[in-house]
Amino acid sequence: MMTRARPYLLTRSVVPENQESPIWFLHRLRFVPERYVFRRNHFPYPLRLPDRLTVRGLVSFPLSLSLAELKAMPAKTITAVLECAGNQRAKFSPPPFGEQWEGGALSQGAWTGVPLREVLARAGVRPGAAEVVFVGADEGLRPDMDGVFSYVRSLPLAKALHPDTMIAYAYNGAPLSLQRGYPLRLIVPGWYGMASVKWLAHIIVTDHPFTGPFQSIDYMYYPHPDRDDGKRPVTTIRVNSLIQFPLDRSIHRRGPLKVEGIAWTGRGVITRVEVSLDGGRTWREAKVSRDDHEPYAWVHWQWEWNADRPGDYEILVRATDSAGRTQPPHPLWNRKGYGYHAISRVRVQIT
């Protein structure tokens, strides 16, 4: 009796738990199953999970909401890509320090929850508000600072009030797992995953910029290896693509070969995916499958190659979005290795 092989998560660290999705083997999936979603943590899992969500600060009516109370509010479901800002960090040259993600710190699913602006409307945001701060229940030590820190991030008020920014309590129709941020987490479609705070415990409306270490030290683009001038915050996901088949360094018989994968962006939608076999001198357009009702979802693309000549080949793929952004030949190197989005490449041998 034959057993069907199953892919597994690739462990990058044990404590805190950081594991990559087997994204190369999840072909043509609209939703990544829970067991295959990547895991990105800064600290060990929280020992105490919040039983209520508080909203305070520059509001007229401070709130303390239970999960049941949030579920009683009007809900919405959004299909969205969730990508770690450090995804593909290992591809930078030289590789920056940090988790050496290759390409699997990436997933997509259906998130269900309450629009954040509905909760903020119930609290009554007062004039002068500038940012909204989100406090997670996870905490621990940082190697670069003394003391115990919680994972805390903020959003500009306009982004917090966007109709698709949500407090999620379900993934793919099931309650959030502990790994996904049970009981509540923030979901910020179009932004890298660091903005989507897990195990959400407190929301604080402020009249000034938040400067915690996960806001002002981490998740900043530092363009220089040894100085901080020119730094800017990591926010919107860059246009990107991934070749899921064929695998890098794989060998294939000559004949028809289907090249396929996914492409995604945080601004607008993917409008074109192109393939090159000659180092980028010429490009051929791939077929793109997109659902216009899901603007935050990745698209599937494929290109039929008549690989009739034996030899070694490098397949290049680049995506373009509706904002006019196209993947560049080389990544914009930065000291912490965020936002890798260079042209996708695999090498194959045709025999």
Uncertain segments are none
Percent of residues in helices comes to: under 10%
**Residues in β-strands, percent:** 35-45%
Number of domains: 2
CATH H-level superfamily of the largest domain: Oxidoreductase, molybdopterin-binding domain
Total beta-strand segments: 23
Q: Please state the CA-atom Rg, rounded to the nearest Å.
A: 21 Å
CATH class of the largest domain: Alpha Beta
Contiguous helical run count: 4
Assign the structural class, choosing from mainly alpha, mainly beta, alpha/beta, alpha+beta, or little secondary structure.
mainly beta
Placed side by side, the strands forming the largest sheet appear as 4-3-12-7-8
Order of helices and strands: EEEEHEEHEEHEEEEHEEEEEEEEEEE
What is the CATH architecture annotation of the largest domain?
Alpha-Beta Complex
> Biggest β-sheet: count, sense, barrel?
5 strands, mixed
Give average pLDDT, whole number.
96
Principal-axes shape call: globular
User: And the CATH topology of the largest domain?
Assistant: Sulfite Oxidase, Chain A, domain 2
- Report the span from N to C terminus: 32 Å
Organism: Geobacillus uzenensis
Domain Oxidoreductase molybdopterin-binding: 52-213
Pfam families: Mo-co_dimer, Oxidored_molyb
InterPro entries: Ig_E-set (IPR014756), MoCF_OxRdtse_dimer (IPR005066), Mopterin_OxRdtase_euk (IPR008335), OxRdtase_Mopterin-bd_dom (IPR000572), OxRdtase_Mopterin-bd_sf (IPR036374)
